[in-house]
Amino acid sequence: MLKPLSNRVVLQFEKEEEKKVGSFLLPNSAKPAENMAKVVAVAKDVEDVKVGDMVVFEAFASEKVAHNGEEYIVVKVENLVAIVD
Question: Which pLDDT does position 81 carry in this prediction?
Fold first, then answer.
């Protein structure tokens, strides 16, 4: 797992599961937002968000990182826009 430093958080896009009815594969109704992801790690000095929060972030201010076959996004807290309820 990545451990963010300073005022950063690590995000990951949620994987959408395919839906089947019988032998039919149902398409996803909407494409997931490219600037919305789940918080998977926070630096120790971050207080505004916690692991498990779904957040909206400024995509231009993010850094994509691959680790152990998974893709993550590292973002500074000030580039988080909102927490999604």
Answer: 97
